[in-house]
Every structure is written in C-alpha cells, then in structure tokens.
Amino acid sequence: MSVLAAAGAGRLCAVRAVFTCLWRGKYFSSGNEPAENNPVTPMLRHLMYKIKSTGPITVAEYMKEVLTNPAKGYYVNRDMLGEKGDFITSPEISQIFGELLGIWLISEWIATGKNAAFQLVELGPGRGTLLGDILRVFSQLASVLKNCDISIHLVEVSQKLSEIQALTVTEEKVLLERNAGSPVYMKGVTKSGIPISWYRDLQDVPKEYSFYLAHEFFDVLPVHKFQKTPHGWREVLIDIDPQVSDKLRFVLAPCATPAEAFIQCDETRDHVEVCPDAGVIIQELSQRISETGGAALIADYGHDGTKTDTFRGFCGHRLHDVLIAPGTADLTADVDFSYLRRMSQGKVASLGPIKQQTFLRNMGIDVRLKVLLDKSDEPSLRQQLLQGYDMLMNPTKMGERFNFFALIPHQRLHGRNHQMNACQSKPSPSPVAGFGELAWR
Ligand code: SAH
C-alpha cells in the first residue's frame, strides 16, 4: 500500500467547510464606509484614547493592538475560523491538506536520518485542525515512526483558541498551568499519547531538533506601511478623523520614522509593507535549524517582494474596511517571501515560494483524493471532497494565491545543484518533498 493510501487509511473525517466562505486572499484598503456603519467598539475607544494621548500610531501598532491586545484583541477571545466565523483556511476546508503535511513531515524526518526524537512546533495553530490531521497520519504510520520520541509544542497567544486546540487534539479540557515561572501555560497529552505544551512565544520552545509549521500565521503579524513621496519615504500612520466623530483615518508621517530602516536602498516600488516581527521569527527559526537541524514549512498567501498595498480586513467572510469597528474583524497583509529569505541571513537554505497547487500536486494530492473517493459511496462526502480539492487547487481560488516556503539546513541540499547548471536546460529537482516530487511512496 502506498503511503498516500496508508495515511488515515482512507478514513473520511466529518464534513468540513462550507464553500460559500471566503478565504483571505482578496485585496481591500480602508474605503469610505458611511459613519452609521462604524460602531464605537471598546477597541476603537481604547485606540482613540491612545492616539489622543500620544499622537497618531503606526499601522503595525494598530494591527498589534487590534489583533492581540491581551484584553480586547480580536484573536484573544473568539473563534473566528470556519463557516460561522470570519474566514476559512485550507486545513478547515479539506482533511487532505493536513494529511499531506503530515506525510511531508515524516518524509523529511526519514530523509534527514530518522532522528531518535523530534519536536513538532506549530505557530498559530487556529482550531488545531491541521495538527489533528497530522496526528492521524502519525498514528496510521506508527510502524514507520516507531521508537521515535515525538513531542508537540504550540505557540499561541489566544486563550480561546488554545482551549479549542486542546479539545481537538486531546479530547479533553486542559487546565492552565499554575507554575508562574514556566513559559508553558498549558500542558496535556494527545489522544495518541504524545505530550503537548502551549507557549506564547517561540523563544520559549526548547531548542531541540524540530520541525516548525506556520500556516496562515505570518500574514497576521503587524506590518509597517510606507509611501514614497517627493521628500523620501514616509510612514503611513493612523489618526483620528477631525471631520467625523469616532472615526479613524490614514495620514502620512510629516518626517522620517525609525521603521524606515527596514526598506531596501534599491526599492523600486512606491508603496511597501514591512513586517519586522516576521524578520525576528525567521532569524530565530534559522538560528535554531542551523544549530539543531530540522526544517520550517511556512504556508501563506504572499508575494516575492512585488506587491504594494495588501493590508485588508475580513468579517463574516466579507472584505471589511480595516479602520471600521476595530476588534471585530480580522486584519491581514500578504507575506513578503523575499523579506523572509533575506532575514534567514544565509544561515539556512530556503526553498520556494512555490504555489500551493504545485506543492500539493508534488505531495500526491491527486492519488490521495482518489483513495478517499474510492472508499466513499456517500454522495455528499464525495461532493465535499471534490469541492475541497477544487478550493485548494483551482488557480482562481487558493491554488495560485497560496505559497509554500521552507527553511532547511544547508547540508540537506549538500551534493546537489539546484540552480540552473550549464549542462542542463532545467534546474535539477529538489530533494525536499513538495518542492520536488514525493520520493517516499
Ligand atoms: N493556522 C491556523 C490559524 C490561522 S489564524 C489555520 O490555518 O487554520 C492565525 C493564528 O495565529 C491564530 O491561532 C492566532 O491566535 C495566532 N496568532 C496570531 N498572532 C499571534 C502571535 N503574535 N503569536 C502567536 N500566535 C498568534
């Protein structure tokens, strides 16, 4: 039996997403919503107080407050994913997505010498759906992973989502840790007996041999926005609109601001977004992978240093004006993969970004779909599988907007030439599954 047939042994999970939902890959900027559509949320009150006290704030400060303020942040106290929430993500759409990522992890573990132990670290695990699908694959392929000591480490700022993750993967309510000195705020054991810990910061995860996953995580990290003017780069700030009560507006900083240092000297665009927090995380991941091995797989919608204005909001599966009713809608900006690559500072090798469609096809999504379709005779499940496949793969849906990007130790590519080589008309295929074909069947 091929690994794609064995993963989950063709098991169908409960019906997932509804396909009228919108994913987050559309564009929008703050428009001119009528004032009556601008309820004064507790977050708006908090931000107006802040701006009145200290002046206009950066877009990064705005995003950070709106999304992760410990008391009122959008992510902190709610479940925003899925049909009843504000947006939908690939793992919520189809079980096949998580299963293929599970196979990717095992394939990398095998290719790098079957270490006696590994940590699976996920950044921003949402509802834990991706992890649940991966763990099902680990259970089905237990004979391959036998004698490997696996532990799970989740980096999550949201109390509400961490409770949902615990229910998904441990099937029980996990209590908060009482040890104030420990960075682990929750601890449990998965249904299959793997220890799992929750942290608020990647820095606190033990520095051991690890595979890191970040799916739709980097796009919610705060970005600074800049515009080129005749006087040089000026940062876009958020201020109170003097003409309309309780309304915010964008303004340009009158002079240069410190975050300007993040803009490349040879930048040719006239509007850029930079995400220093993403840079810090990539530096940390690169350092860890270069010292202890493993890999990081990052999947998000984004670009390779070409796009300009991608900051947007989502509420109830609709695009939402980013400055209206802050705290009630998701805020996001496309990931600049060229910046992530630069921030790895050559400590590790990077692969991609490649389109989701290519990555999943290389991982064998067509074979896996066929296995599941063959096992199912219920028309509604078959339809759900086919619709999910279309949503993930169709170039006009998520197939081309979402990208996969990986950080791996230089040794992983050792002895192979992945650049165009003088004797070849094509680059040699990557030895890393997804970026080349899955070799392990
Ligand atoms: N990966 C999931 C969820 C994506 S939504 C999926 O694809 O379905 C973004 C996730 O990142 C949420 O779990 C959110 O609570 C978490 N998050 C947002 N900002 C964070 C931060 N600064 N540190 C850790 N987690 C964060």
UniProtKB/TrEMBL annotation:
GO molecular function: protein-arginine omega-N symmetric methyltransferase activity
Assigned EC number: 2.1.1.320
Signal peptide extent: none
GO terms for cellular component: mitochondrion
Enzyme class at the top of the EC tree: transferase
Region (Disordered): 420-441
InterPro entries reported in the protein's UniProt record: NDUFAF7, NDUFAF7_sf, SAM-dependent_MTases_sf
Reactions it catalyzes: L-arginyl-[protein] + 2 S-adenosyl-L-methionine = N(omega),N(omega)'-dimethyl-L-arginyl-[protein] + 2 S-adenosyl-L-homocysteine + 2 H(+)
Transmembrane segments: none
Domain of life, source organism: Eukaryota
Compartments, record wording: Mitochondrion
Keywords: Methyltransferase, Mitochondrion, Transferase, Transit peptide
Pfam families xrefs: Methyltransf_28
One example of a Gene Ontology biological process annotation: mitochondrial respiratory chain complex I assembly
Protein family according to the UniProt entry: Belongs to the NDUFAF7 family.
Subunit structure, interactors included: Interacts with NDUFS2.
Function according to Swiss-Prot or TrEMBL: Arginine methyltransferase involved in the assembly or stability of mitochondrial NADH:ubiquinone oxidoreductase complex (complex I). Acts by mediating symmetric dimethylation of 'Arg-118' of NDUFS2 after it assembles into the complex I, stabilizing the early intermediate complex.
Protein name as catalogued: Protein arginine methyltransferase NDUFAF7
Lineage: Eukaryota, Metazoa, Chordata, Craniata, Vertebrata
